[in-house]
């Protein structure tokens, strides 16, 4: 059973999402929050698999709530999916950098929302490669003082798999591309995530673009 936390300051939106998600046999809504501070507290109380997080909320916004969840080792199993009205914008980019595993537009099709929750629960990045290139390409160049790339801490193999993750390849596809077993591909991805302190594959994607390992227009 996939356990979901809903965080949105609009009760009507929460009710709509709850009705949709609760109708599924494999999904359970365990809590609802009306602001980011409540979201963090309820995440600690319920330890959901997925937190659907609105960006703009009172008291504490969704980006800061995401950052606090991502920084708390007790919540390492919580995968945050950002909900936005606006699609590609700086809020989404900042949320991904804060630790979100992906994002969904609020007017997405119901089937896409359900699929997104299931993908996020598995720990996979909920990011289209084409959308990611546009999003990160737009905002990476605006950072005045980019963080050290840390590329040197990765082996050549780990750099290669990180670049392939950023291009949207699954472990099986990486294995085919590199002519290795899927288990070995998964091991390389896991080691790269550990070295870079990445919570999930979405964090590898952000790192790959910000470090220049993958070019936004590449």
Task: Summarize the SSE layout with pairings.
Layout (H helix, E strand, L loop, with lengths): L1 E6 L3 H12 L4 E7 L2 H11 L3 E5 L7 H10 L7 E6 L5 H9 L3 E4 L4 H12 L7 H11 L16 H11 L4 H8 L3 H15 L4 H10 L8
Parallel strand pairs: 1-2, 1-3, 3-4, 4-5
Helix pairs in contact: 2-3, 3-4, 6-10, 7-9, 7-10, 8-9, 9-10
Secondary-structure-based class equals: alpha/beta
Strand arrangement in the largest pleated sheet:
2-1-3-4-5
Sheet-strand content, in percent, reads 5-15%
* Ends apart, CA distance between termini: 39 Å
* Uncertain ranges: none
Helical stretch count? 10
Summed over residues and divided by their number, the pLDDT gives a mean of: 87
The helix content, as a percent range, equals 40-55%
Organism: Nonomuraea guangzhouensis
Domain Response regulatory: 3-121
InterPro entries: NreC/VraR/RcsB-like_REC (IPR058245), Sig_transdc_resp-reg_receiver (IPR001789), Tscrpt_reg_LuxR_C (IPR000792), WalR-like (IPR039420)
Protein name: Response regulator
Q: Brief description of this entry?
A:
50% of the residues lie in helices and 13% in strands.
Task: Provide structural commentary.
It is built from ten helices and five strands. The protein has helices at about 10-20, 35-45, 60-70, 90-100, 110-120, 130-140, 155-165, 170-180, 180-195, 200-210, and strands spanning about 1-5, 25-35, 50-55, 80-85, 100-105. Strand 4 (about 80-85), helix 4 (about 90-100) and strand 5 (about 100-105) form a beta-alpha-beta unit. Helix 6 (about 130-140) crosses helix 10 (about 200-210) and helix 8 crosses helix 9 (about 180-195). The longest helix is centred in the last third of the chain and has 15 residues, at about 180-195. The mean pLDDT is about 85.
